Amino acid sequence: MHAPAPGAGEVPEDPFALHNSASAVVDDHGRIVGWSERAQEHLGYPPEEVLGRLAWEFLFDARDREAVRDAAAACERDRGWSGLLPVLHRSGRRVELGFRARAVIRAGAAREWFLVAAPAGEVLQWETDRSVLDGLFRRSPIGLSVHAPDLSILRINRALARFTQLPAAEIRSRGIGDFLIGPDVETIETRLRRVLETGAPLIFTEQPCRLRSDPSHERVVSVSAFRMEDPVGGILGVTQLVEDVTDRYRARRRLALLNRASARIGTTLDLGRTTRELADVAVPDLADAVSVDLLESVARGDESAEETTGPVRRMAVHSVTAEALEVMYPAGEVFHFDPRTPQARCLAEQQPILEPVLRSSPGWYFQDPERTRRAYGLRAHSLIVVPLTARGLLLGLLSLWRAERPEPFEEDDLTLAEEFAARAALCMDNARRYTQQHQAALTLQRSLLPQALPEHSAVEVAHLYLPADPATGVGGDWFDVIPLSGARVALVVGDVVGHGLHAAATMGRLRTAVHTLASLDYAPDEVLSHLDDLVNRLADEQEPAEGRSRGQQIVGATCLYAVYDPTSRRCTLARAGHLPPAVVTSDGTVSLPDLPEGPPLGLGGLPFESAELELAEGSLLALYTDGLVEARGLDLDEGLERLREALSRPGRSLPETCADVQSALLPDHPPDDVALLLARTRVLAPEQVASWELAAEPAAAGRARHLTETTLTGWGLEELAFTAELVVSELVTNAYRYGGGSPLTLRLVRDRSLICEVSDSSSTAPHLRRARTTDEGGRGLFLVAQLTERWGTRYTRDGKTVWTEFPLAAPAEGHSAATADLAWNG
Question: What is the pTM of this model?
């Protein structure tokens, strides 16, 4: 049988080779007069069944006769033919074969046809491989060279001949060193020998190289190589593929340098450090030596002077060699540039200067002839000078030299130097002009906005804050998460009219007021009423500053205040001229609840109303300011629709949701302050809450102590039971005595702390007082204050609730004894 088709990566044999192909001889009449063993293997006919018969009568199907006649005509015309024809196997099936036919002249002018055939698939594969091999040497844009085991060149393709600028015929039998410079030759030959020795291929390895025909220009090539072996494993040599990637390498290097400059320049607002960062970035990727000089007025932190001739202060120097640093002016030195130097021209014209060959432009010699001679001795040969300008102001200049690298600076190098010099100049100007203001703003921001939102059992929160004025870093918007009694939490978002420091100062006063009102456990509508009064007073206090119109004053604000209770899953909200929150269910459904709008803060005299929502566990509550939905110039409905879309994708973390909202709604520099507060609701499990209604009778205190002791034991809080019983007993006794005779409610909540609450229908406020030694009572609330971490009172429409909190951490040594002592003395 014929040899199997080669596998992937194998080189197929010539299918028409005599040892592998079927052959036959046909006379001039089409009669078969010769038949090989391979022919019998391919078609199943033994010689005795075919010799002497006309081939077209039994080897070809009737429908293929036309193709056979065409092939025969081509043979007659061209004295030979090659192509594909279907042939009938002895079994009757059709077999596709590739044919080569050649005329054979016998004695007496008789003519016969010698046919060679092979399976069509093998023929097509072989022709394809041959075409590929021909393309590699004739048409491939990638260089190809074939080397003997001693690395002498056996053959190169046309692309490599163009690269070396030598005819292909002249390179054969020569070595790599005949057209490349020494160090590059050693690198390439070392790698090729490693391929020959190990058989491990070399893949896309980049390396520099210089041609002997053009030694001043460095090229970068990508080299791949593999070992050549004969069928029995003998080493024939090595083949390498060479691609000139100089342009791609330089573009990648420029991009990497710009990225590095962006990351490393301007990391601080220190002017000296910024100049040093600029010098460090440029060496050695762009230049061998660099200096950064600033106008003396700029170095002092003043505005750039109109006089651009100097003096200048050397801010930073950097070089690949210590000798070059000895030639250059040191950092800190103040001097003038000679008017004939490229640096002086750069300052005067505020234009970059490229001096590819320094010796052809001797102007820089006049600055310091001795230093110039020493620089020439260090092979300094090329110079770029770039002005450092930002916002139309000249700050100084950047000078770059080449000495170690033989290639001179080119226009691409000048463009690159201008790009990262422009970035550096902007950073320098920021450092000079805004350091003091920025530091003051950061201090103000730290004092006005929460730096870290508190962790709370009721909600998981995340936030986004972007001021309209990035220079100051603060604005009039604010947000807050305020823990309340009873495991509840207050969520606040507000917006003061205006931007910048004045709005931020007013915002800070309002935020402080909100914290105070929240600590008093006012309802949301009452909180807004008190804030309304405060904004009115602030507006009355504010007088127009000198040179500022009244229209620039802070005259109003909006606010949304929400209180969420994780035990009841109810959220009570009130808003003062603010946009409604977005509520997102766990499946991504977004709604904007229809809440009573309420007037903006500062109008005065108008009422505020609260509304209550019941939120399922895992609901997402989004509170935001109008700067979020109106940032891209959209109308309100369009902005809210985009917000819906950004919030409607479930399964994301809160920081991811913040990022998605920012990407969908905000430009790089929002025109208005933006605050976004996201809160995902949690629910306290039923087993964490215990509540009882107690009759207002003398036995209520005893029943409350028993219920407390039993519940805390079940929760594993036995160490708190004695203290909690004392506190609960005092609260229930007070409620019985002063609560008006209505039933009492005792509630225990196990959260981050133990919460004990006693509610009654009375609105009488309990007061802490210090009893005299002769008094028989009056020590109850004093005892409560001593035994608890926090306590307080909140009022409802039906009365009041007195609450206490106990920390769940292990009690300090001696705490139990102190508790017993207080109980005995009480």
Answer: 0.51
